[in-house]
Amino acid sequence: MKVLVTGGTGFIGSHTVVELLNKNYEVIIVDNYCNSKRNVLHKIYQITGKSPTFYEINICDFNSLEKVFKKEKIDAVIHFAALKSGADSIKDPGLYYTNNIEGTYNILKLMKKYSVKKIIFSSSATVYGDSQNVPIKENETIGNVISPYGMTKYLTELLLENKTKQTNDFKAISLRYFNPIGAHPSGLIGEDSPDNIPNNLILYILKVAKKELPYLKVFGNDYRTPDGSGIRDYIHVVDLAKGHIAALNYLDKMKTNYDVFNLGTGKGHTVIELIKTFEKENDIKIPYQFVERRPGDVEISYADCSKANKLMGWYAEFSMADALRDAWNFAKKTRD
Ligand code: UD1
Fold first, then answer.
1. Does the beta carbon of 258 lie inside 6 Å of ligand 1?
2. What is the pLDDT along the chain (336 residues), one digit of tens a residue?
3. How far is CA 267 from CA 74, 160, 228, 233, 235, in A?
4. Pair type for strands 26-31 and 53-56
5. pTM score, two decimals?
6. Are 3 and 25 in contact (CB under 8 A)?
7. What are the b/e assignments for 163-183, b being 16+ CB within 10 Å?
8. Atom of ligand 1 nearest to the CA of 177
9. Which among 139, 141, 180, 173 is positioned nearest to 265, based on CA atoms?
10. Cβ of 294 below 6 Å from ligand 1
11. Please, are residues 86 and 130 in contact by the beta-carbon 8 Å criterion?
12. Burial class (CB in 10 A: 0-12, 13-18, 19+), 97
């Protein structure tokens, strides 16, 4: 089976490509390296002994993308390619709408033209906004999003759902990721943006661990949680990657044409718990200071994953401790 992976050199994309290759899928990657490094393809080869077909293309470039659909006989698409910073999207919403929505639209148009009938979409728990019901189930209200980034995830889900209603044999699954962390246990691939500007908790912690920052700012000490810091569901990126294989298999079994699954661990951890675990696992002190809450942050977010467990047979297997060891192992190798 030939799978087109858009954004296949990115953080979650590259780990998913590894899992696909390990399961003998034929993989075609389309990526423009806007948030990844060129050495990723070689790292994928080092891990799997296989080289996916690669096209350096921006998904907003319809004509170039069409050449790929024309040349390759694609059976299914896993669509990661998107800009992903909530904060940047507030500064430049147009860029996010163009890239994330128009890019997806191009893919859907080409899927129709070339009779490709299956797609897995990389959505996010951000679509739940500040849900008061935890653990969060898939039937929770969505769309009350905080950033244009979140809006693009929400709108893409709607676009896919509508499309499956209009076209009888078109099937789509949206996967709502909680907070992806960790790296491949080989230490060869991980979260590695070319601009080296951190945009999530782990990237900040790694900078503190590498002594590139003096301390971590913990946003908020007055949330209604045991230590006052926010709670999130941190999932190992390899577990997340395997969720895409489970979803691909499930596409063929599902009775409806559209479905959505949470991918998380089902466990919530505070920022302080995460810092303490990182310190213990890696034997490194992470100095931190509490600062004001960060605007737009939700208080508590963790998943109810029973739907993915039951229907797709998928479970997160790694612990937060495993993920934090792998994240540091990768960061050390990259630094050295
Ligand atoms: C949110 C979205 C997620 C999106 C991501 C990127 C939700 C539930 N999640 O993640 O879908 O992909 O933004 O835009 O809406 N923190 C600190 N200090 C730091 C950095 C973070 O204390 O320097 C805290 C945050 O307050 C939060 C936790 O760490 O409690 C995780 O933050 P982060 O890694 O930025 O991800 P989210 O904000 O949860």
1. no
2. 999 999 999 999 999 999 999 999 999 999 999 999 999 999 999 999 999 999 999 999 999 999 999 999 999 999 999 999 888 999 999 999 999 999 999 999 999 999 999 999 999 999 999 888 999 999 999 999 989 999 999 999 999 999 999 988 999 999 999 999 999 999 999 998 888 889 899 999 999 999 999 999 999 999 999 999 999 999 999 999 999 999 999 999 999 999 999 999 999 999 999 999 999 999 999 999 999 999 889 999 999 999 999 999 999 999 999 999 999 999 999 877
3. 37, 29, 17, 6, 9
4. parallel
5. 0.97
6. yes
7. bbeeeeebbbbbbbbbbbbbb
8. 11
9. 180
10. yes
11. no
12. middle
**105: which 2 tokens?**
């639209």
What are 246's two structure tokens? 């489970």
Query: What atom in ligand 1 is closest to the CA of residue 204?
Result: 23
Among all residues, which ones are annotated catalytic? Answer: 149
Q: Is the CB of 180 under 6 A from ligand 1?
A: no
